[in-house]
Amino acid sequence: MIQTRGERAFTVFSAVVMILLTVFAFLPFLLIVIASFTEETALIRNGYSFFPEHTSLEAYRYIKSSAYIFIRAYGVSFLVTILGTAIGLLITSMLAYPMSRSDFKYHNTLAFVVFFTMLFSGGIVPSYIMWTQYFHIKNTLWALILPNLLANGFNVLLVRNYFKNNVPLEIIEAAQIDGASELRTFFRIMLPLSMPVMATVGMFMGLAYWNDWINALYFVSKPQLYGIQNLLMQLMSNIQFLNSGQAGSVLGADTVSLPSTAVRMAMAVLGIVPVLFVLPFMQKYLTRGVVIGAVKG
Amino acid sequence: MTARRKSPSKPLKKTLPLLILAGPGLLYFLINSYFPMFGVFIAFKDVNYAKGIFGSDWIGFKNFTFLFQTSDAWIMTRNTLLYNLAFIALGTIVSIIIAILMSELLNKLYSKLFMTGLILPNLISMIVLSLLVFAFLNADSGFVNHSILRPLGLPEINWYSEAKYWPYLLVLIQIWKTAGYGSIVYFASIAGIDKSIYESAKIDGAGKLKQIRMITLPLLKPTIIVLVLMSMGRIFNSDFGLFYQVPMNSGALYSTTQTIDTYVYRALMQLNDIGMSAAAGLYQSLVGFALVLTVNAIVKKVNPENALF
Known about the structure:
The complex is a heterodimer of chains A (297) and B (309).
Chain A: H1 5-36, H2 40-46, H3 58-65, H4 67-100, H5 107-119, H6 124-134, H7 142-145, H8 153-166, H9 169-177, H10 182-193, H11 195-211, H12 214-219, H13 228-237, H14 240-243, H15 245-251, H16 260-295
Chain B: H1 2-38, E1 45-46, E2 57-58, H2 62-69, H3 71-104, H4 108-123, H5 126-137, H6 143-149, H7 166-191, H8 195-203, H9 208-232, H10 240-244, H11 254-257, H12 260-270, H13 274-302
Antiparallel strand pairs in B: 1-2
């Protein structure tokens, strides 16, 4: 394919604009990374800057000195992410499987039951009252796992569509003629043949759990159950949090010289790092997932 | 004889294992989605914990009457609708531009790199996002005041107490966060366009811009229409984090940051006004439901293939 001059100019133009846009997308991250390495006094005097006067590891040293608070929050986040994603993926795919079987009598009924939850909801108040008054999940780990996130209609339908379009019914029938039970067919044939969609949906779920803070906002008041996001939120919404109350006394920190700004930025950096690790892996599946998902629910 | 006796038991034997597999998921949806649906009656009660939810007195539409008498009802409805319209319009345009420019890049590796960079903002939590915004906007040391306005000799702005800037800020923030991710679908659609169409347009002397206008955009039209219509169905919903956490729940900003979702949260958790909160939630659900049905009917007319149901 030979390019004309006009086309070459357009390609160059595209590249330049894309570079600018990508830089624009990255700059805020760069700013907080730099801020986290900036000396607190410089930060107060000169503000956030891409070219700080004095760099310092103070913030990270501070985090290390009170490491157990951060490790605990990280632990909660990881536990909730892993548990939630595992359970969520399991019940999502187990529900999607019968829905994908057009020879199953109730497959359309199931699909409607799931789909209707995407159309109408009772709202937050009834959910809140139900979870707190009848299931008593307040201040338990379940509060971070069960409401809203575990399975949602969108994910179930996504997996259903994949099962339906990518694993022909003939394979299942053949397996069952050979004597495989439904459970065996599901775990030994359907799941192994559906790893791409499992990876995609698992990623969506994992990311949602890792980034979730709203469940804790509603259902958790014990700092011991805060994940990394809620710890961050606490630090941010209340600068005094580290200076006073539980954290301050626990840390026994010198309240005057608390490097709060840089520490907050360092915390934000630590909150993003796990996401960065999965990013390249994510890129591979994201396109597929978004495209499958966008076409039809 | 045996065949006749077998047939009534066979369906159960066949369906039971599948029903068991579906069981846990169904139970979850029943608890998490269907039970609360029956809880909508709370909006018609004068909730009193001493009497219990079921024992509280019925008050008819009073919660709704009170809600719509406040200025909150108008403000949150207006904000929710206008922000969503702006997000849909600008978000779509920016996403399409990104997708077109990206598809121009001949080098696969580069376009992958750009794509990764552009979706990163979509992957961070609202908490981290609000910290990024705080780094730019806080009054004392924020980047904008300190490194842009001050050197230019312009007066510094107290961002978190001036409501008038937030419509622009929130739209900018939302586009920054979502446009890259939103462009993926368009990018995939463009990749699916038959290259020979462009080749023949080129032979006919069409330049790049003309090719985009005459080929790319018309072929993207079905995707654009469906995606826009689908977001119209969610126009009564808003991202709680964006409107609550990013403006730091600042009371001075409520006139331009309050949406239905933030109102429901504040009425329930901060004002402890359960009736009003439930009424606002039901208002949102019902209008949202009506919107989704309407939109689906329209999509069905435009392109039956893409209808949701």
